[in-house]
Amino acid sequence: MTRKPLSYYQSIPEETLRNRIDSIRRRMGARLRILVHYYQKEEILAIADDVGDSYGLSAAASKSGCEVILFCGVRFMAETADILANAKREGNRRVTVVSPNPDAGCRMADMATLAELENAWRLLGEAVGTEGLVPVTYVNSSAEVKAFCGKHGGYACTSSNALAVMRRVFANPDSRVFFLPDQQLGRNVAAWMGFPPEQVFSYHGGNSVVKTNVQQLVRDGFLPAGSVEELTPAAELDRDAVGAAKVILWDGFCPLHQRFTVEQIDRARRARPDVKVVVHPECPREVVARSDEAGSTKKILDLVAAAEDASVWAIGTERRMVEALQRDFPTKTILPLSDEMPMCHSMNTITLASVCRALEGIESGYPDGVVTVEREIAQPALLALERMLQCKG
Ligand code: 13P
Ligand code: SF4
User: Fold this and answer.
1) What are phi and psi of 195, to 5 degrees?
2) How many angstroms is it from 30 CA to the middle of ligand 1?
3) Whose CA is nearest to atom 3 of ligand 1?
4) pLDDT by residue (tens digit) across 309-326?
5) Ligand 2: residue whose CA is nearest its atom 5
6) What's the pLDDT at 304?
7) What is the Cα–Cα distance from 364 to 167, expressed in whole angstroms?
8) Gap between the Cα atoms of 261 and 263, Å rounded
9) Could you tell me the distance, in angstroms and rounded to a whole number, from the CA of residue 132 to the centre of ligand 2?
10) Residue to substitute in 160, 184, 185, 346 for testing ligand 2 pocket (most ligand atoms within 8 angstroms of CB)
11) DSSP assignment, residue 308?
């Protein structure tokens, strides 16, 4: 069935789009749930049934009880929702997960492919063996990477429960962790666990996807020159160093959170000595170490919500989240940690126009943008995701 292109919907006035969306929601009732991540625009947050961080939205998907989920976030989130929402399905009835833009990827998730992970696992095995080595993937990863972790006794984790997952793994003191794709979350959690730097090894096995990403980002002027070396430590797989490591880090990162600096924190403190600095743990280790608090988007929200009126906060995360805090807490001073207010462009591709188009497709019975994870990948990925959901942050 042919549907009008997105450009047609983009020409419709916002008020009309809102009315069309509301009508579909009313007609579909409990058969439809709209899940929205905190980085979405105000108008998308306003139509949510559930708003949350990655952990909260995963939990919401796993007990959605609806026929269709419209997921307003990036692709790995929709894939995760598809796996979890269909984990206990009966017969042929599936929960259909639709994304208003299924091409909205996460640049960090793209920095670890299954082929690269398999190669890394083989190299690590040759160097020091994989006995006791537990793969832990940040949920910002492909379903294939999660499936690899599930098959190898590993876990997925989110920024809200990465520490709880690590504690679970290290309940066995002989364990070692291979953490991917986010080197920064991995490094932060290793530090919170009390591992000294010599027990944390930065893996770099000629990872072409990371390198291409970094070089492109430098060319685009999005990361400063020199980042390639800093971000992809060209460590050889030296048996002694890998053998001594309790945590081995993949060399991925979030291009947006990588831009926060210690200098920004120092500047914020000079300008407002009473400021509390809170950042997302995808920020570099030195930034997290210099902050007052670090946590998932939900934790950032909870901290600001619980704070006294007139308190002052500098927030180190995505622009839309900072704007939402400024709107929702007018009695508190909410400052962006960085004047440039970095934005996740993938998240930002979702608009009322793309949501309206997706919903009209759903209602017609011929939806576009369906995100489905094949059974052979979904089943092992589910193992990693279920272990993730069992660890509360
Ligand atoms: P949260 O789980 O903290 O919402 O993080 C998701 C994310 O992609 C942050 O960049
Ligand atoms: Fe991925 Fe960074 Fe966007 Fe989060 S903010 S979805 S980690 S690219």
Assistant:
1) -80, 130
2) 27
3) 296
4) 999 999 999 999 999 999
5) 344
6) 98
7) 47
8) 5
9) 30
10) 346
11) P
How far apart CA 230 and CA 182 sit, in angstroms, is 14
AA identity, residue 290: R
Tell me the domains of the chain and their CATH numbers.
6-104+349-373 (3.40.50.10800), 108-255 (3.40.50.10800), 261-336 (3.40.50.10800)
Q: How many residues does the chain have?
A: 393
pLDDT above 70 (res 49)? yes
384/195 Cα distance (integer angstroms) = 24
Tokens of residue 20, six digits: 């069309």
pLDDT digits (tens, 9 = 90+) for 283-298: 999 999 999 999 999 9
What's the pLDDT tens digit per position in 247-283?
Answer: 999 989 999 999 999 999 999 999 999 999 999 999 9
Instruction: Return the structure tokens found at 94.
Output: 């599936």
CA of 326 to the centre of ligand 2 (A): 21
Q: Are the CB atoms for 364 and 71 separated by under 8 Å? A: no
Q: What are phi and psi of 260, to 5 degrees?
A: -75, 145
140 C-beta closer than 6 A to ligand 1: yes
